[in-house]
Prior knowledge:
globular; five-stranded antiparallel sheet; alpha+beta; 229 residues; single chain; 3 helices; Jelly Rolls
Amino acid sequence: MKAIIINALIILAAFAGVTFLLKKGGEAGASKVKQVTAPVGRGVVDATPIHPLVIEGQIDNFAEPIALQPIRSWGADPKHGFMLAVSTNPKLNQPRARVVFVYPTAAPTALDIEYTVPPNVFEIIEADPAARDRFDSVAVQAATQGGAYNSSALLQLDPKRRLDHRKWLSYKLILPPATKEVQFWIVGIPPDYNVFWATCAISLPQLRVTPANVPAARNTSSPPMTENP
């Protein structure tokens, strides 16, 4: 009986020893394993802009609606657009305009802007020596409004000195999320800040003008029809 008890104690001690060694070995092994964690989430700072085929909105001069008109320029096919002009004639004087969207942008959005000095205006300037001497160039500021931040661009035209400006030029303005409108206005640039005979035609190929009775800049977004920029 005594021998049986001694054997049992030896077996229990051996089992305890094996358990202790396994536990220590497991802890030592675990300490050598490189812990792999999930990648840290990171917000997208510069998301790729979407490029809608159609953007609905309305155009006005901050007082009354502006109707799009076909504009022929430099032998190109007519484009529908609107005019900005600095003039002593009140009927022609329209130095600023804005496009108010029916839906604020839901994501960074590329807006195509095409702009030019109409050739008939340039020909009038060139035919008058006094006007030709005073005319310098044309600059239009385009700026977004309504988003968490705004973006802008300076569109410059110098058909007097640059033959490559005697055509429609283009610019892609990136609208930040939640943009409600884009404003355009003629500006004078240094050093002379000259806006004499400053005239610019602007066409927005994506814009679909909605009736004036449709409320603009609603706080809902429509499913965009997009293509790659």
